[in-house]
Amino acid sequence: MKLLYFGLSLLLCLSWGQLNVGAQSNELKVHRVMKELGVVPDVLKQPPKALLKMRFEDDTEIEEGKTYTPTDMKFQPRLEWLADADTYYTIVMLSPDAPSRENPMYRSWLHWLVVNVPGMDVAKGQVISEYFGPLPPKESGLLRYVALVYQQPDKLSFDEKKLDLKNAEGHSNFDVQKFTDKYEMGEPLAGNIFQSKWDSYVTELMKMLYDVDE
Q1: Residue 37: which of 96, 109, 98 has the closest Cα?
Q2: DSSP code of residue 88
Q3: Integer distance in angstroms from the first to the last C-alpha of the chain?
Q4: Distance between CA atoms of residues 89 and 156, nearest Å
């Protein structure tokens, strides 16, 4: 019996060890990629503490720093991070490269903002800006897109009104550091980053949102 107990204990220890190594590996990679791609210091003072997993409609799972098409990112992703069911979170997705990395005059462009998210139940959060995917202009090259999760001190009352997707006001020049400092959220709890460049879906999205032909 003692031998069986010892064997089970050893197996559990090894399993937990592998999980911890995996978590540390993901955390270190997201740190490294955020710094390599200049998100720190362009957008953040410090990288997120851990990886935010993002999975899109066709089961495309975002790998830190990789390139995806706007068509791939068409619909709101499913998110996963180490969340506490009794804690509230804020989700932000933005691009620091609007309209291009060389000329980021609209840094940062807000693509998604949901606050008061209980645990990982994004659907129960308060939407300030509905999700819309990457909009890289035709000749802009690769643009960076950053998704972040912040832990709130509690369920909060936000001053910001819900943004109209068809109006650039509120989306352009969004300062995530200023916003999270205002509500005392501290550094990002989890995050991810990917890159994207123009494809034909951008033309469709621009027509739908702003009634303009690219």
Answers
A1: 96
A2: E
A3: 72
A4: 10
Tokens in use for 194? 């990917």
β strands within the chain, DSSP E: 50-51, 53-55, 78-80, 88-95, 109-118, 126-129, 143-151, 190-196
Distance CA(102)–CA(98), nearest Å, equals 9
Report the C-alpha gap between 151 and 180 in whole angstroms. Answer: 10
DSSP single-letter state for residue 196: E
Query: Positive or negative CA dihedral for 46, 41, 51, 12?
Result: negative
Backbone angles phi, psi at 95, to 5 degrees: -120, 125
The three-class DSSP label of residue 68 is: coil
The dihedral of CA 151, 156, 161, 165: what is its sign? positive
- Give dist(CA 16, CA 162) in Å, integer: 42
Q: pLDDT tens across 73-121, in order?
A: 999 999 999 999 999 999 999 999 999 999 999 999 999 999 999 999 9
Question: By C-alpha distance, which of 190, 211, 213 is closest to 200?
Answer: 213
Q: What is the pTM of this model?
A: 0.86
Spatial distance between the Cα atoms of 94 and 92, rounded to a whole number of angstroms? 7
pLDDT at 15 over 70: no
Single out the residue of 166, 106, 116, 167 nearest to residue 136, CA to CA.
106
**CA gap 44, 175 in Å, rounded:** 10
Cβ atoms of 67 and 197 closer than 8 Å? yes
